[in-house]
């Protein structure tokens, strides 16, 4: 991504230099939330009200310590009598303009102000009050400027609008409601005769059309349009005469074989517009553009350049915790990179137009954009809405990344505005309605929100294209990546499936300046993100990355006859797999008692990139060396043509039994073992260790690890997490040098404890189940507050759910203990608690010493302590008994929008169904308490030369 970012930055600088030749810009505020200027400020109520002081702009006044906080749904929380804080801020600044601006048209531009904004220059109104928080507006103030002396700008900003429909559309909403001038304000000077804006339509067949809007034309002029490619080579030009009084000029020409813009191939051109008078340039402006054609083929799909595409999208609020919706270009760039890193190709600007810089970045990096008029669940009036549509579309129309306009969200659609978009958009993009009720398809696209898997199947069998603009609501740890694989397969394989947009990108956590900058997600209202407020990556981030990988590999485990051939499906729309770089690594994992985690790379090489066209299937030949089986793990990394990692897949090459036998054989110290008993206990003993087993239940009651009698608190297991434990018999007996205790239950379950002469405590258990179960396996107790960290060989480093196993890779991982609750402060990832997948061995580092557990059989889940996926009146889903569990099945996770969350989860698809179990389950666990004496085998556990952690 770094190389792409440098190109983008260079192009932006070049663009700004040329832009400044035509429009002289003088910033009155800073250029963004990081680079601000100080103005005078007064607010009528709330904190620091009633007296003049200073404020940094652009900003939200709440984040500068003024006024009060409101969340948009406070009226729901507090009832019908609740009234939002009617805060009004007065801004004042003084400025001078150069004498060279005399005779020029001077405008003042506001890129965004919340909400009603009245502007005065030297005591005179600049124009009518602007209503609407997220839109760029400007006034011609040429006749109000004083040259040779200081000018005064006064701005009155009302947090709530005087227009009820504006408040309904963008203030009474499910997000933080902030106030103030939050985007830059600047002066703009142009010649008296100038180009006010352009509208471009560049089609995939090379046709270029432009409407050039003119101001102040008072005599015959000439206008020239030049088209340049990315290397700044002139590829076409056209000229036309304009006459006095002209307000628009239309120009059209064609080029041959243009490089087309898509999210996979974001080829950009530059159009330079020059206004000449008497053969002298008097004004010049330029626009970036991309040649591409958008089609909605009703009953079929969404087509870009004649190819059907499917949206792998997400909803994005413009957000940063310390500055709210006042952000920087760096934040916009970071967000676009993160969206691309998840292998997504689309973003919905929810629920308002974003910063201009974000759209430029989407043009450059390649993201399909749904640009949305505000209207959260109620609509703008027609009078106000027409003005705001014009401002939004005029600003954004030339971005090739925008392929849809959205006329409001979830009922916030004013149908009278549907035809307004095309008045200012020469390319006549489709308009959609992002709605939450069935039966509201518009322009052949149904965007209904939060359908379950089975209702989605039904919609996809209907007459309309289906593209949910919100689905799998990701509050807390639910939704997002959970169940996504099932949904994505539905859309990918359905003719009318167009993909969709997950809710949402980030937890909208606000650093509250009235609470010592603590981050507030407003309880259950705003922790809806795949990432935390500062872009902390949650588990769903990585699951989405694998699920949406355009190089699709489904091989979970290598077959016994594996020969280096891996089946692959190309889920790109425009890219051949032969454009992808494939690199494999053979690795050796760090050992359990090594001081490090990670792995060592033993060998690396390049795999063949096969010729597989988009949407087709084929095979990858890794070309592995003949001795590949001697290694412990295999990694395969795919990088795209820009050098960005698509995904890294991993496979374990050695079975668990072989992995832990290696450790067991290294325990060279042999002790005599025995068993003693009393009325309630069998006690398995060696020279140093004692393990007490209850006679009534067969459970581990206590552990002593040395001759001094040092105890470890690991006990009360194995408790079967389903059913009751009633013993029918228990006995002790010897087997060679080892001592065993066998406990049988009335329901047929069985426990066998075995103390080996090398100090290893072995547990064999079996149980039978028939029916549907949330989880299956056994549990123990251990005090969570004694634990320092956990280290394991298996999938990680994030916890998983039955319907979100994707995104985790094999490694020796290590997590320091934390109490992260996904969606709430502090956002420390990976989470320490949870279900962890395919664990070969686990080591808990505790205040009492190390506890190491190995598994003989494959595919064991480990549960660590108490946690929940979704937090409501009660945590969900319910947990097994105990707090450290070794499981053969774990539960799926639903979403917060389920009415009865325990019953609704299974409606999210096959992966989200409760475990259907029928049969007998057997497992062997090996326990070692404390540090072993590894004898002469210690060398194999020393630190190897390299330690490479997977990110």
UniProtKB/TrEMBL annotation:
This is Beta-galactosidase. Gene3D superfamilies: 2.70.98.10, Galactose-binding domain-like, Glycosidases, Immunoglobulins. Its EC number is 3.2.1.23. Residues 218-292 form the Glycoside hydrolase family 2 immunoglobulin-like beta-sandwich domain. Monomer. Residues 53-188 form the Glycosyl hydrolases family 2 sugar binding domain. Its cofactor is Ca(2+). It catalyses: Hydrolysis of terminal non-reducing beta-D-galactose residues in beta-D-galactosides.
């Amino acid at each position: 991504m770094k190389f792409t970012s440098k190109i983008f930055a260079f192009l932006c600088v070049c663009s700004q230099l040329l832009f400044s030749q035509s429009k002289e810009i003088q910033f009155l505020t800073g250029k963004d939330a990081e680079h601000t200027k100080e103005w005078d400020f007064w607010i009528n109520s709330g904190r620091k009200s009633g007296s003049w002081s200073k404020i940094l702009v652009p900003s939200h006044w709440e984040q500068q310590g003024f006024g009060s906080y409101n969340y948009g749904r406070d009226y729901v929380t507090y009832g019908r009598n609740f009234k939002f804080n009617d805060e009004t801020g007065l801004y004042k600044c003084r400025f001078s303009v150069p004498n060279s601006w005399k005779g020029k048209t001077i405008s003042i531009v506001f890129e965004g102000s919340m909400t009603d904004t009245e502007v005065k220059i030297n005591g005179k109104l600049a124009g009518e009050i602007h209503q609407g928080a997220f839109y760029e507006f400007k006034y011609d103030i040429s006749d109000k400027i004083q040259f040779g002396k200081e000018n005064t700008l006064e701005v009155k900003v009302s947090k709530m609008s005087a227009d009820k429909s504006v408040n309904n559309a963008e203030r009474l909403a499910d997000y933080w409601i902030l106030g103030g001038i939050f985007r830059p304000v600047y002066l703009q000077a142009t010649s008296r005769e100038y180009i006010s804006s352009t509208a471009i339509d560049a089609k995939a067949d090379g046709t270029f059309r432009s409407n050039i809007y003119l101001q102040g034309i008072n005599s015959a002029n000439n206008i020239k349009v030049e088209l340049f490619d990315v290397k700044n080579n002139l590829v076409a030009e056209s000229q036309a005469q304009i006459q006095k009084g002209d307000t628009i000029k239309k120009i059209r020409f064609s080029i041959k074989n243009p490089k087309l813009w898509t999210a996979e191939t974001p080829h950009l051109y530059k159009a330079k517009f020059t206004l000449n008078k008497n053969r002298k340039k008097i004004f010049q402006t330029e626009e970036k553009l991309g040649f591409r054609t958008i089609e909605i083929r009703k009953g079929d799909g969404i087509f870009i350049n004649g190819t059907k595409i499917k949206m792998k999208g997400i909803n994005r609020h413009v957000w940063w915790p310390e500055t709210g919706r006042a952000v920087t270009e760096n934040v916009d760039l970071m967000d676009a990179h993160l969206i691309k890193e998840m292998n997504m190709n689309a973003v919905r600007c929810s629920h308002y137009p974003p910063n201009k810089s974000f759209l430029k970045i989407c043009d450059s990096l390649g993201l399909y954009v749904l640009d949305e008029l505000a209207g959260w669940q109620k609509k703008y009036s027609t009078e106000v809405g027409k003005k705001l549509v014009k401002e939004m579309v005029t600003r954004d129309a030339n971005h090739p990344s925008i392929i849809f306009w959205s006329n409001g969200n979830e009922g916030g659609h004013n149908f009278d505005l549907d035809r307004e978009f095309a008045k200012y958009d020469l390319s006549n993009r489709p308009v959609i309605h992002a709605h939450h009720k069935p039966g509201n398809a518009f322009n052949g696209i149904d965007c209904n929100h939060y359908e379950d898997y089975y209702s989605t199947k039904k919609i996809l069998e209907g007459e309309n294209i289906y593209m949910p603009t919100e689905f799998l609501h990701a509050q807390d740890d639910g939704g997002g990546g959970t169940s996504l694989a099932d949904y994505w397969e539905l859309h990918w394989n359905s003719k009318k499936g167009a993909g969709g947009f997950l809710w949402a990108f980030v937890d909208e956590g606000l650093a509250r300046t009235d609470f010592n900058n603590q981050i507030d997600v407003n309880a259950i209202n705003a922790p809806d993100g795949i990432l935390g407020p500062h872009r902390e990556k949650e588990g769903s981030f990585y699951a989405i990355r694998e699920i949406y990988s355009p190089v699709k590999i489904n091989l979970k485990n290598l077959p016994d006859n594996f020969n280096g051939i891996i089946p692959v499906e190309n889920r790109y729309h425009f890219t051949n797999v032969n454009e992808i770089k494939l690199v494999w690594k053979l690795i050796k994992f760090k050992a359990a008692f090594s001081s490090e985690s990670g792995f060592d790379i033993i060998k690396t090489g390049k795999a063949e990139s096969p010729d597989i066209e988009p949407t087709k299937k084929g095979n990858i030949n890794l070309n592995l060396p003949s001795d590949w089986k001697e290694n412990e793990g295999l990694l395969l990394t795919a990088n795209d043509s820009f050098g960005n990692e698509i995904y890294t897949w991993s496979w374990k090459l050695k079975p668990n039994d072989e992995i832990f036998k290696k450790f067991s054989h290294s325990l060279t110290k042999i002790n005599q073992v025995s068993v003693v008993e009393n009325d309630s206990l069998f006690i398995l003993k060696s020279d140093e260790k004692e393990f007490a087993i209850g006679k009534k239940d067969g459970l581990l009651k206590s552990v002593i690890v040395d001759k001094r009698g040092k105890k470890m608190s690991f006990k009360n297991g194995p408790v079967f997490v389903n059913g009751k434990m009633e013993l029918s018999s228990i006995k002790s007996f010897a087997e060679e040098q080892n001592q065993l205790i066998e406990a049988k239950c009335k329901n047929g379950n069985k426990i066998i404890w075995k103390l080996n002469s090398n100090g290893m405590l072995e547990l064999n258990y079996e149980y039978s189940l028939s029916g549907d179960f949330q989880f299956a396996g056994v549990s123990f107790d251990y005090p969570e507050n004694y634990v320092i960290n956990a280290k394991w060989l298996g999938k990680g480093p994030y916890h998983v759910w039955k319907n979100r196993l994707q995104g985790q890779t094999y490694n020796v991982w290590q997590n320091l203990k934390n109490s992260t609750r996904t969606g709430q402060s502090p956002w420390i990832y990976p989470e320490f608690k949870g279900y962890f997948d395919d664990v070969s061995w686990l080591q808990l580092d505790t205040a009492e010493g190390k506890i190491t557990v190995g598994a003989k059989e494959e595919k064991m889940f480990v549960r660590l302590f108490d946690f929940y996926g979704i937090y409501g009146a009660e945590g969900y889903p319910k947990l097994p008994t105990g707090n450290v569990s070794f499981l053969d099945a774990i539960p799926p996770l639903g979403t917060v929008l389920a009415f009865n969350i325990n019953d609704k989860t299974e409606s999210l698809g096959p992966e989200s169904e409760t475990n259907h179990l029928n049969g007998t389950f057997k497992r062997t666990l090996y326990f070692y308490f404390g540090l072993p004496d590894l004898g002469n085998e210690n060398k194999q556990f020393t630190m190897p030369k390299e330690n490479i952690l997977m990110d």
